[in-house]
Specification:
Two copies of one chain form a homodimer. Chain A contains twelve helices and 26 strands. Chain A has a five-stranded parallel β-sheet.
């Protein structure tokens, strides 16, 4: 049985390695345009900052490992030019080679996503980068170190992680965001505000609600011209490098050409087995969309966590097994300028748009009991529907934030309501957490509002 | 409506403060033998070590606060000598005063527990302490600082937290434990072993499987004589102070005299409303027992977390409201010598004793992805029943352990099985956690064993 996986990212590689757990006799090939097997894209900002000493450290296993231990054939620097579903054939072209055809029994599409290019004039200049590949990361690192000026377009997770990395390397960083606050795809505006304040304290300059119109300079970028969307004021920011982190979009070119159906979010539509509309073709990761567990809306897959889980399911099924992906909770986290920022479930806006009448519990607390020195403030925001069932949560603070969101993830998945959650026995010890953890108090705050209704 | 609470610990104080949330007109009195209102007993070791600068910091609110904001009457240094249920009367005696009677409509017993005294000869000597009260803590601190030798009897949570505190103050500490390992009421022996090794690395001496026979010395303790239970070897350990931390027992003296029924664990039996067998008398906290959520066995309440939750329920019901305590998960944690140690649900032995055939998943992992510098090892052990339902978990590691156990607490409470848990979407980011968190991998390990059966 021949299985081919297009894409060696988190989804594709997870899928390929999983196939052999179902059936040791499968012949599995992973095709990748880049010259590396799987590496952590999410780790790129930490290699730019130097916290991870070498970009190559991000590569999870070297090529030899796949051959020897993974029993997976890698075809790197290879482009798939066409999928021909009727013949179960792929047309591929290795760097410097001729186009040839590969036969498959099952195909897994894990082409990931590509950067969205915002409508900015002058992007053909030198000194302008995306952050998507190891190559991009190296270019940015070389161009944006001590004493240089850098402009990052986009205050989402990637933009801000990169801004922090460049700031850590001694660059003078300006982040320009179209929307009125940072991280609005991840958290509500009140939580974003806490992050915004922390970024501004750090010395990174933030221009919010601002549209970048043009990259200026001769051959090389020398600055950007932007417009404040509220005041229409025009701003010029001088810079040595410009990094575009204004979002990504699913890479569906190949799939569409092959007649694979997209969903309402313009990504490949898959069922819970990761099947596309064409038999024997599966898809997983950022090129797909999947129903949000809470709202039911079909949403783009944007997290490594989801990608590896989908990959596992796709790999199992492609090899003749039977696995399903039961939910997409969108449990997410990042760490920026000393703050952990995390969420699960839809943000308030998405939940409201889906027709929910939200009940919100929001509480400031400490990671430690009052009498214990060293506790840090955390803010916990709980979202419940009108029956009091938990549908989302967001937490921000300096420490011990991330694992707290996972408690909400388990609770949301199992349909827990705010009353139950408020009485959850969380662990307590003076150097660890208070007897009533802030997560339970936030749920209690929501419960009280529910009762008052 | 007159409500009286006996005991100003976590359960009693929570109960008293809760009554007024149900009914602002209740007249509520808290009676305490000690001279302080509620303080954190769990914080005592951290005041002994000096990490908390003053013992008085452990007091949550001063006396004036109760009067002014809590609207709770405090009677400190007051002993209840008898409960007369037929007349709804308490006999009380304030320090230096005469015995008088108080009338109640509802009574809440929160008398807590008292130290068990192990059968050791010579305990009448000076220099021998328990660690139960602020007074005890001050005495230990004064007697056991730099250069002094200390013996702690009992390697449970309190004994070890105190050993660490005395060690931090420069004392030369020996801990003597009757059982073959440390913390066996909290974790399984394999997890205990990790803690044991860490303690031994710290320079604290551990004598396990060892029975203390006698405290020797003239007026003041000068040493202990102990016997290794395996070899029968007699050991003498010289010491300046001896601290007894060999367990506690429910303080049920008053309750028993009043005809209040105990349960199989020899603590006050309460239903889910915290009602005792006598109408209008409730009980909460360490003087009670309650069914374990997983095994159904009636177990002693030993955690501050449970005490405050029970207190809240007792207070609500005593004031005419309606609340229930739905479960006792026994989510527990401590931090010792740089390790966080945590568990939820029964240990393997208790689960097996309750008739369960356990399936265990145990995994070593890191708090961070492999490529990210600075990750710390954590060990996660998952306990499932023969159908694969999660019934317990234990985790040990240097960081980020505590909140991970809370994820299991929510999952156990909602009946999650290991397969579901293995696919739980935990949050991922390079500086935070791997895409497959060690908690999900441990559940997967259990699931694989289940399938193999």
């Amino acid at each position: 049985m021949k299985i081919i996986v297009i894409g060696a990212g988190a989804a594709g590689t997870s899928a390929a390695l999983e196939t052999r757990k179902v059936n040791r006799d499968v012949d599995v090939t992973v095709i990748n345009t880049e010259g590396f097997p799987e590496y952590s894209r999410c780790g790129l900002p930490y290699a730019v900052s130097g916290h991870i000493p070498k970009f190559e450290n991000l590569v999870l296993h070297d090529e030899g490992w796949y051959d020897k231990f993974g029993k997976v054939r890698l075809m790197l620097k290879t482009e798939v030019t066409e999928i021909v579903p009727d013949n179960n054939v792929l047309k591929v072209k290795q760097e410097g080679g001729a186009t040839r055809e590969l036969q498959y029994d099952s195909l897994i599409i894990a082409t990931g996503s590509k950067p969205s290019t915002p409508p900015i004039q002058g992007l053909e200049k030198k000194g302008i980068f995306n952050l998507r590949t190891i190559g991009d990361g190296k270019n940015i690192m070389n161009a944006g170190s001590h004493g240089k000026r850098a402009v990052v377009v986009g205050a989402g997770v990637i933009g801000l992680e990169l801004a922090e990395a460049l700031h850590a390397k001694g660059a003078k960083v300006t982040v320009i965001e179209f929307l009125p606050n940072v991280l609005l795809a991840m958290v509500d505006e009140d939580i974003a505000e806490v992050v915004k304040n922390k970024i501004e304290e750090s010395g990174v300059r933030l221009l919010l609600n601002t549209k970048v119109d043009e990259a200026i300079g001769k051959e090389k970028v020398e600055g950007v011209i932007a417009t404040n969307r509220a005041t229409n004021e025009r701003i010029t920011v001088d810079t040595d490098i410009l990094v575009l982190a204004a979002g990504i979009k699913p890479d569906t070119t190949l799939a569409e050409k092959a007649g694979i159906a997209l969903g309402p979010a313009k990504a490949i539509k898959v069922d819970e087995h990761m099947r596309t509309n064409i038999e024997n073709i599966y898809a997983a990761g950022e090129c797909t969309e999947f129903p949000d567990f809470v709202t039911g809306a079909s949403v783009r897959v944007g997290l490594g966590t989801t990608a590896v889980r989908q990959g596992k399911v796709a790999g199992t099924n492609a090899a003749g097994g039977n696995a399903t992906m039961e939910h997409l909770l969108n449990t997410r986290v990042t760490k920026l300028f000393g703050l952990e920022i995390t969420g699960v479930g839809p943000c308030s806006e998405a939940a409201t748009k889906a027709g929910m009448k939200l009940i919100i519990g929001k509480v400031r607390g400490s990671t430690l009991p009052e009498y214990m020195p060293g506790g840090k403030e955390i803010i916990v925001k709980v979202l419940a529907n009108e029956e009091g069932r938990l549908v989302g949560a967001q937490i921000v603070g300096e420490e011990q934030v991330a694992q707290r969101i996972n408690v909400f993830a388990a609770a949301i998945l199992k349909g827990m309501n705010v009353g139950e959650f408020s009485m959850l026995e969380t662990c307590y010890a003076p150097p660890i957490a208070p007897t009533w953890d802030t997560i339970t108090i936030a749920a209690e705050a929501a419960m009280k509002k529910l009762r008052r209704k």
